């Protein structure tokens, strides 16, 4: 059920789970994308006359109250994005919440404190969920990025109140369905990042679902080593080469082509524009060199692969993109994907950790069909797992 299924909400109290786990530096948020994502839901409910109570976690306080992890830290950012003043409420249940609801007028917004200050949240304690639910008339979950957690505010509340998916949640689920649930084929997946060990389940799930698996970043080195390539002193999980071979066998059986780079950018030291940097074939990496990016020929070939595809799902950068010029392959491939999306031949969905930063760095974040605000939840979805927060809404 979505907000379209709500009747008249005037004067009703909406408990809205949002993700305000914003990256912070020196006390202020460095990226407010997650607030922008929930803005339509929050303002829609406020405009319809509900009293909107925002419920969120912030950091990992593990059931204890830390003043440095209060959601009051992000109140200013939320107010700025929403363009509205909101009331900070330093509890999640009890008389203070009740009194605050009495003060809020219809259409006003309150921000409850960090729900993870209470151990009942992560324990998904039904009594804790009931205590919060007692203040609301209905529950809206608009925090896809926290939906992989079976916590009271992400899962439990759905069992105590009429539950609805917010607009951001709805958009995420629609985009993810278009990417892997029910995609137009052929489908390509780009999986990058440093370590294979963190993405084994992702790779195993993808080989059965996509026609092209493009592996980049440090992960590719482990796959190259599995194929007998000497990767010099590159980041490589040598103990996982058997696993990498198994995944490549699975891909073969499933009709999925695994694309590994055949030329690479190497250097003897990891620094910006190092003098030792050169481009070479993967079979020519010297023992004192490390692979830091995918080479230009491979990038061009991968662009040609994308041109034959209708759907792309992307997680993780192709190289050490935070240090120039090892962002080159990521930027080039992202631009190709963005251009194909704009041209109408490709549905492109990206998400998870560094990916959003990489696409923003390439200047194409807004040109993809959909960019998820989720980190861990996006990965778990790519692993093919059911997300408890989503399951509770659809039960
Ligand atoms: C995130 O930042 O990915 C979500 O808010 C989930 O946070 P968590 O990993 O602390 O549960």
How would you characterize the overall build of this protein?
- 35% of the residues lie in helices and 16% in strands.
- It has 395 residues and is of the alpha/beta class.
- It folds into 2 domains: 3-165, Rossmann fold, CATH 3.40.50; 173-382, Rossmann fold (3-Layer(aba) Sandwich).
- The strands form 4 sheets. A 6-stranded parallel beta sheet has the order 5-6-4-1-7-8, with helices on both faces.
- Helix 7 (200-207) links the parallel strand 9 and strand 10.
- Helix 1 packs across helix 2 and helix 8 (217-226) crosses helix 9 (241-254).
- The mean pLDDT is 96.
The top level CATH class name of the largest domain: Alpha Beta
Arithmetic mean pLDDT: 96
Number of structural units classed as domains: 2
Main sheet properties: 6 strands, parallel
Strand proportion, as a percent range, falls in: 15-25%
Q: Name the assembly state.
A: single chain
**What ligand molecules are bound, each kind once?**
3-phosphoglyceric acid
CATH architecture group name of the largest domain? 3-Layer(aba) Sandwich
**Radius of gyration in whole Å, from Cα?**
23 Å
Strand order of the largest sheet: 5-6-4-1-7-8
Could you tell me the number of beta strands? 17
Low-confidence stretches: none
State the CATH superfamily name of the largest domain: Phosphoglycerate kinase, N-terminal domain
First-residue to last-residue Cα separation: 10 Å
Structural class based on helices, strands and sheet pairing: alpha/beta
* Overall shape: elongated
CATH fold field value of the largest domain: Rossmann fold
